[in-house]
Every structure is written in structure tokens, then in C-alpha cells.
Design brief:
This protein is an alpha/beta fold. It folds into 3 domains: 67 residues; 247 residues, Aspartate Aminotransferase, domain 2 (3-Layer(aba) Sandwich), CATH 3.40.640; 116 residues, Alpha-Beta Complex (Aspartate Aminotransferase, domain 1). The chain contains 15 helices and 13 strands. The protein has a 7-stranded mixed sheet with strand order 1-7-6-5-4-2-3, sandwiched between helices. Strands 10-11-13-12 form a 4-stranded antiparallel sheet. Strands 8-9 form a two-stranded antiparallel sheet. A hairpin with a 2-residue loop joins strand 8 and strand 9.
Length: 501
């Protein structure tokens, strides 16, 4: 029998079992008291670095793994922001499904490289099945191409690059962007589109000047007439429309672009239509949202984020491309690989990565645990709670309710004596400063966590519910917490400014 090699990085099965059980016990305890603990702490970056011992050098000699893991658990559990807390409504980050947490442990234990099929036979097939399930969930063609990526930016990039390769042809892969100088390509997106579009235009050679920003209506939805007019003018000027981007749930207000009309328009003119559904795409499963969202099923490509409304632990996004050959044309430098007479999925042909982790497992597990009906129930409850948040704000005299869309409510705090003077430039500036400081205090307070939006030049507070731990009682308590904070901040700021009552 060959003797095992002794190395400092390995852990015996008995030791692994002991410290693993201890960690699972502490995680279970944390999940059990998530409603009771502070959402975050009020420590500065310098204080956090001091607690970590950020300036300590790399150890010359190793330590016992049990002590290291215990220390890491203490640091993270005491000094983190908990997006699993029922009062976390900032950004679009969901509470993590417990089964997904265990899925990440299992994925790390097997450690497949889901880039090539030979390195990950079962993991590759599980990812393929997960992509098909997500497509079915969205009523998108299940024979599409697709893969799991890190999040919304990367999922949108996949659709963007598939569009670029389709419109520009193979010459762009060999000759680069300079081959297109005679007929520059253009991008069309509403002014409410997420900043991934600037990153894509910048990183993939078109430049941000290639973006045609399309205005929106009063509900922050893309203006179709302006889109049609802009594209017509660009074609007349010898420019080439590359991609039209629609959003299924803007991050500021939850607005849904007229996706159905956009899809029909693009199809008639042979323009690639992409839908950014990173936030709201999964709401297409509900019959209680704007029917325009159903138009994403007609898109050439779609981006969605399972770590948002499927409640998967970070990080995991999903890119879908209607024609599987279009995704291969954008990324592959290999002919299809056949294994035992059947085509095997090599995900390095579908995206930017070669080596890839097993992101799909946690999504695959919780899709089975919850099922389609369970997700309809949870997503619709989040949407209902978002509306209840908006209604609770409307009842509070010192809060101005502004917008409600999907599960996002926006509002701001206005002192009683300033309500009739909001058009005054000086008062408008003060209200922006006041609400900005309220947000800072709320984030530090540990009770609720909001974010912000800018609406018509106004700095406003924003609550977004993609949180299966949030209840009716939590959203009803929110206005009182904001008003209490607002009164304190207003009193302090009045002393520092020359603002008169």
C-alpha cells in the first residue's frame, strides 16, 4: 500500500467532520436569529481593518485550521452587513436560500471545472438542465444557448457580444473594430438602463459615444417613438444599428420597458434585441405584473440573476441566447466536440471563461426545492410587500411617496414647514442634502437598509424587496423609522445652515 503524502494543507476526515459540524451549527444559529440581530454595524473602514489586523504580515508558519475557521466565523458574523436580514431593502440583493448555501459547500468539495465536459461531466449536464429550466421559467425557447455567469453585468455582456459577432460577422474577430470604420455600429438603450451598457460599449470596442440614449415616459419606460426615429436617422446616415436593449425592471424604480413592441420592431428590421432582466426578469412568471414583461420571451438574448429573485447565494447570473449557434460564433475557437457519438457541452465555447466554478448547483437545488408554484408565490408576495411599503409611505404625512414598480418604492422625507416650498431652489438643495444624510444614518443604524435613486434631480430613498424574510409588519414599521431619523437629522442640519422656517 502506498503511504499517503503528508502536507500542511490537508485535514483528516475526522477533523474535517468536527470543525465542519461546528461551522454548520453556528450558521444554523445565525439563520435562526436573523430577525433579531442588527442588520449592520456603525464601524468605520479603519475600525474594521483594526479588528481584522489588516497590517499583520503573512504568517511564516501555519496554524491549526480549527482556530482559523473559528476566528473567521467570529469576524464575519460580528462585523458584516446581513442582506438576509428582513429589513434589507437596499440594492437588488436577496436573502440566500439555505439549501443554496449547502450547495456551494458540495460544489467546492467536488470542485469540478465546468469549462470542459471531460473535467465536469455531471456538473456540465446539471448546468445545461438548469439553463433549460430557467428558460422554461421565462417562457423562453428551451433549445437556446446559455450558461451561468457571475451576475447581471456578465450575463448582459454575453448577449452584447453575441449581438456584436452576429451584426459584424467574422471579420471583427480577425480584423477588429477598425474593419467597421465605414459603418460604425450603434447601441440603443433608455436613459434608465443600468451602467453595464457603458462598460460593454467601452470594453468591447464601440466606445460610449456609440450609445444612443433614448428618453423615457413619465413611468421611466423607454419611448418607442424616439427609438424608431433615432434608428431611422442613424440608418439614413449610413450607421449600423447593432443592438436594442430593453429593461425588465429598472434598478431605480422597477420600470418595465415596452418589451413586446420593442421585440416586434427589432424583428421587422433585423436588429438584435436584448433584454436586461437581471432584476425583474423572473417576475415574468407572475400574472400580476405589467404584461409588457412577457416580451422578453421574444428577445434574441436575455440576462437574469438567480442571486436576485431566485434567492440563490451570491454569485450567479444566467445568460440566454435564442440561437445556440450565435453564442458559439461569438466565443468558440473549436469545432463542436463529440463524446461517444453525442455532442458534449464545453462551456468555454459559450462565454469569457475557460476555468469555471460550479455555480449552477445551488440554483438547480433550490429550483427543485421550491418549484415553479413556490416561486410564483414568493415573488408575488415580494411584489405585494413592495406595494404595501408604498402605501405605508403614503399614509405618513412627513414622507412623499413618489414611484412604485415591481417591488420597488421610492419616496423622500419632507419637513412639514417645507412642503409648500419644494420648488424653491434653495429648499430643493436642502431636501437633497437632508435625504442623503438620512440614508447614511439609516444604513448605520442597523434596523433597515435602504438605497437611493435620483428622480428629476431629486435625491430620494428607495426600498426594494427581494427578501423572503420580510413581512407585512416590517414594511409597516419602516415609515416610522425613517421619520424618526428624519426629524433628528433635520434638527441638526438646521443648526448648520441658514435655512429659515
Amino acid at each position: 500500500m502506498i503511504n499517503s503524502r503528508k502536507v500542511p494543507i490537508d485535514i483528516t476526515p475526522d477533523k474535517f467532520r468536527k470543525i465542519g459540524h461546528e461551522l454548520v451549527d453556528r450558521v444554523a444559529e445565525l439563520l435562526g436569529k436573523m430577525n433579531e440581530i442588527p442588520l449592520t454595524n456603525n464601524l468605520t473602514p479603519g475600525q474594521i481593518r483594526e479588528l481584522l489586523g489588516a497590517d499583520r504580515p503573512l504568517p511564516q508558519k501555519g496554524k491549526d485550521p480549527e482556530g482559523i475557521l473559528s476566528e473567521a466565523t467570529n469576524l464575519l458574523m460580528k462585523y458584516s452587513l446581513y442582506n438576509g436580514h428582513p429589513g434589507f431593502w437596499g440594492y437588488v440583493t436577496s436573502s440566500a436560500a439555505p439549501l443554496g448555501m449547502l450547495g456551494d459547500l458540495l460544489a467546492a468539495a467536488v470542485n469540478p471545472n465546468v469549462g470542459g465536459w471531460q473535467l465536469s461531466p455531471m456538473a456540465s449536464e446539471i448546468e445545461s438542465q438548469t439553463v433549460r429550466w430557467i428558460a422554461k421559467f421565462l417562457d423562453y425557447p428551451t433549445d437556446c444557448g446559455g450558461l451561468m455567469v457571475s451576475g447581471g453585468n456578465m450575463a448582459n455582456f454575453i448577449g452584447f457580444l453575441a449581438a456584436r459577432a452576429t451584426v459584424a460577422g467574422q471579420e471583427i474577430r480577425t480584423g477588429g473594430m477598425q474593419t467597421l470604420a465605414a459603418r460604425p455600429m450603434r447601441i440603443y438603450a433608455s436613459v434608465e438602463t443600468h451602467t453595464w451598457i457603458q462598460k460593454a460599449a467601452d470594453l468591447f470596442g464601440l466606445g460610449t459615444n456609440s450609445i444612443r440614449w433614448i428618453g423615457t415616459d413619465k413611468k421611466q419606460r423607454l419611448n418607442m417613438r424616439e427609438l424608431e426615429k433615432t434608428i431611422h436617422e442613424d440608418i439614413q446616415n449610413g450607421e449600423r444599428p447593432m443592438i436594442v436593449v430593453g429593461t425588465a425592471g429598472t434598478v431605480s424604480t422597477g420600470a418595465i420597458d415596452p418589451l413586446d413592441d420593442m421585440a416586434d420592431f427589432c424583428r421587422k428590421r433585423g436588429i438584435w434585441f436584448h433584454v436586461d432582466g437581471a432584476y425583474g426578469g423572473f417576475a415574468a412568471v407572475s400574472s400580476k405584473v405589467d404584461r409588457a414583461i412577457k416580451g422578453l420571451s421574444k428577445a434574441d438574448s436575455v440576462a437574469v440573476d438567480p442571486h436576485k429573485w431566485l434567492y440563490a447565494p451570491l454569485e450567479v447570473g444566467c445568460a440566454l441566447v435564442r440561437d445556440v449557434e450565435k453564442i458559439r460564433d461569438a466565443f468558440s475557437y473549436h469545432p463542436p466536440y463529440y463524446h461517444f457519438g453525442e455532442e458534449a457541452i464545453n462551456y468555454f465555447d459559450f462565454g469569457l471563461q475557460n476555468s469555471r466554478g460550479f455555480r449552477a448547483l445551488k440554483v438547480w437545488l433550490i429550483l427543485q426545492q421550491v418549484g415553479r408554484e413556490g416561486y410564483v408565490e414568493m415573488i408575488e408576495e415580494d411584489i405585494r410587500l413592495g406595494e404595501e411599503m408604498f402605501k405605508a409611505v403614503e399614509k405618513e404625512p412627513l414622507l412623499e411617496a413618489l414611484t412604485y414598480g415591481l417591488s420597488i418604492a421610492t419616496f423622500r422625507y419632507i419637513p412639514e414647514d417645507l412642503k409648500s416650498r419644494t420648488d424653491d431652489g434653495k429648499i430643493a438643495d436642502y431636501l437633497n442634502t437632508l435625504n442623503e444624510e438620512i440614508l447614511v444614518r439609516l444604513k448605520r443604524g442597523g434596523e433597515i437598509f435602504l438605497s437611493n435613486a435620483i428622480l428629476g434631480g431629486q435625491f430620494v430613498l428607495r426600498g426594494c424587496i427581494v427578501n423572503f424574510r420580510t413581512s407585512q409588519a416590517h414594511v409597516e414599521a419602516m415609515p416610522g423609522i425613517v421619520v424618526k431619523c428624519g426629524k433628528t437629522v433635520d434638527a441638526e442640519l438646521r443648526k448648520e445652515t441658514a435655512l429659515s422656517s
